């Protein structure tokens, strides 16, 4: 019975170790324009580069302007690059490109890249709470964690181990009563 318990525990541990690499999410490795760049004008497009291929059917990009307006940008995906066409605008100020993609492992990944457009007569970007609320309802929804999956896996392993332990004890008691 101890051998069976040992084999089951080793199998569960191997399964848990084997699942870990599949949980790796895409990571943004670069952007054009770079995060924090100062530009003379709004670029016609932004390129986001990730460490792994991106699923094209779920890639989303939105541009938030200095006045808080959010514009969804059309995207094209090629392997690990997402290219978004930005709307034409001449307003100076701070811009944020928000993105959400789905990794090849199926998990959503989101983030943002910011840049500033210089201009002579434009006022700085307003900082009231209203634009922040508008940007939170952008076309790019927030990503969920995924930690609950690991918690569920740990609970399942603990319950399996407990079940094996109960069966092993009942087997010992049955042998002791019949002898």
What is the strand and helix layout of this fold?
Blueprint: H1 2-19, E1 28-32, E2 37-39, E3 45-50, E4 60-64, E5 70-73, E6 75-78, E7 81-85, E8 93-102, E9 108-117, H2 129-136, H3 147-178
Parallel strand pairs: 2-9
Antiparallel strand pairs: 1-3, 3-7, 4-5, 4-8, 6-7, 8-9
Descriptors:
179 residues, alpha+beta, Immunoglobulin-like, 2 domains, 5-stranded mixed sheet, 4-stranded antiparallel sheet, 3 helices, 9 strands, 32% helix, rod-shaped
Commentary on this structure:
The chain is an alpha+beta fold. The chain has two domains: 2-21 and 148-178; 26-143, Immunoglobulin-like. 32% of the residues lie in helices and 29% in strands. The protein is built from three helices and nine strands, in the order αβββββββββαα. It has helices at residues 2-19, 129-136, 147-178, and strands at 28-32, 37-39, 45-50, 60-64, 70-73, 75-78, 81-85, 93-102, 108-117. The strands form two sheets. The chain has a five-stranded mixed sheet with strand order 2-9-8-4-5, with no helix packed on it. It has a four-stranded antiparallel sheet with strand order 1-3-7-6, with no helix packed on it. A hairpin with a 2-residue loop joins β6 (75-78) and β7. α1 (2-19) packs antiparallel against α3. The longest helix is centred in the C-terminal third of the chain and has 32 residues, at 147-178. Mean pLDDT is 75; it is low at 19-23 and 120-145.
């Amino acid at each position: 019975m101890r051998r069976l318990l040992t084999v089951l525990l080793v199998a569960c541990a191997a399964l848990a170790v084997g699942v870990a690499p599949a949980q790796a999410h895409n990571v943004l490795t670069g952007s054009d324009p770079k995060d924090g760049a100062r530009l003379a004008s709004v670029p016609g497009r932004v390129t986001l580069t990730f460490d792994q291929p991106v699923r094209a059917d779920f890639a989303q990009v939105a541009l938030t302007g200095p006045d808080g307006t959010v514009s969804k940008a059309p995207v094209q995906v090629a392997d690990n690059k997402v290219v978004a066409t930005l709307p034409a605008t001449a307003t100076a100020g701070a811009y944020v490109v928000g993105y959400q993609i789905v990794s090849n492992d199926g998990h959503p990944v989101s983030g943002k890249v910011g840049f500033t457009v210089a201009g002579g007569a434009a006022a700085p970007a307003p900082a009231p709470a209203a634009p922040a609320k508008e940007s939170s309802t952008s076309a790019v929804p927030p990503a969920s964690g995924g930690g609950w999956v690991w918690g569920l896996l740990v609970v399942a392993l603990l319950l399996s181990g407990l079940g094996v332990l109960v069966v092993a004890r009942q087997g010992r008691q049955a042998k002791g009563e019949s002898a």
